[in-house]
Amino acid sequence: MHQQLHMALGLAVAAVLICPAHGAVKDAAPNGFSVVESVHIAAPPDIVYAELIQPAHWWSSEHTFSHNAANLTLDAKAGGCWCEMLANGSVQHLVVVFASPGRKLVMRGALGPLLGLGVDGAMTIELRPAASGTDLTATYNVGGYLKDGLASWAQPVDSVLGEQFNRLKAEVETGTTEPKP
After folding, report:
1. What residues does each domain of the chain span?
2. pLDDT along the chain (181 residues), means of 10
3. What pairs with residue 130 in β-bridges?
4. pTM (2 decimals)?
5. Residue 39: which of 136, 122, 115 has the closest Cα?
6. CATH class of 2-174
């Protein structure tokens, strides 16, 4: 019985450590949407934050305009830019409006294909110390005008952000962006 309890506890701890990001569309309407990503990362908040502000290390090249995540930078101070260098120009993805190292990062802007639409977004990333690491919660609220409405954009945005935060988790925990199976 004692051995079974230890095994069950061990499996529970392992599940927490390898849990991928869980996302959810919290709201979707013609005028906007809200998605929330949550992931537990087996590292302290200051380590997670240090990697978070280096998107070139963990963001997927597939989800960049240049097709190379090495072109991404993030100046993590108020007014700082999450930017991307292009062969013939640059892209401003988000602007930092609040930065508290190891605790919280708030940015405004429209990611990816949202950039060319009549929308704006606010992304809040919170880091909370938790058992054996950090609980990261990223909330991206997007609103504005699009002729056919924004509700249909919620699921694809949720999917892309979920992938990125799983890559961040993998990078922090293993040094590679490939999430554990």
Report:
1. 2-174
2. 32 39 87 98 98 98 97 98 97 98 98 94 98 97 96 96 97 84 55
3. 133
4. 0.86
5. 136
6. alpha beta
